Amino acid sequence: MKQEIKSKETQDLIINTSFELFYERGYNATSIPDIMKETSLSKGAFYHHFKNKHEIGKKVIEVIIRKRIKEGFITPLSNVEDNIPKLLLEVFTNRIKNYSEREKALGCPANNLVGEIGYTEQDFRVILKSLFEEWREQLMKVIEIGKNNGEIKKEVNSSSVAISLICAFEGVRSIRKVYDDDIIFNEFLESMGNFIKNLGI
To answer: What is the pLDDT of residues 126-147, one digit of tens each?
Structure first.
């Protein structure tokens, strides 16, 4: 049992360290020697857990990036006791308001990977797509509840609104990196407020 715990701790160390390096430097610019150096693991200890960087990348998406999106966006959207337009506004603005300077500068880890790998890493693309689809489906479900509750206009297309919200959020995180100026976030918050307000009755 102790060996299993130690093995799990080592695997977690590799995944967490790799995430931080991918976030700071990018996936392509991070090498296995970089990860070994940061973890202080020997080559044998490292390769006991992962055969290559591709395997690590998949785990980073499945474990860390999935957790971030679920905790930040999917789980909060399950709290449908609130007014739906208010809930949407809170979910899509509270994260922006609470980002650290590092998170502002580096942008969204998931979006960074999408931009970096494009269509070249099929395994990554499939996992990321399923994650974004889970987010989109939860948004669509919430918007439909809002329509049924008489809080959102019946004619609203739930699918197009869901993807618009996701794209707007992911896009502004990328643009903020280029401008390095919080005015981009401030203007996004204003426009997001207007967009969501216009969904309501």
So the answer is: 999 999 999 999 999 999 999 9
The burial class, CB within 10 Å (0-12 / 13-18 / 19+), for 106 is: middle
Sequence-distant contacts of 71-77: CB under 8 A, at least 24 apart? 73/135, 73/138, 74/134, 74/135, 74/138, 77/138, 77/139, 77/141, 77/142
Q: Do the two domains 1-51 and 58-199 of this chain adopt the same fold?
A: no
Task: Give me the CATH topology for the region 1-51.
Answer: Arc Repressor Mutant, subunit A (1.10.10)
Query: In sequence order, what are the residues at sequence separation of 6 or more whose Cβ sits closer than 8 angstroms to the Cβ of residue 8?
Result: none
Domain boundaries defined on the chain: 1-51, 58-199
**Rounded to two decimals, what is the model's pTM?**
0.88
Cβ atoms within 10 A of the Cβ of 130, count?
13
CATH class entry, domain 58-199: mainly alpha
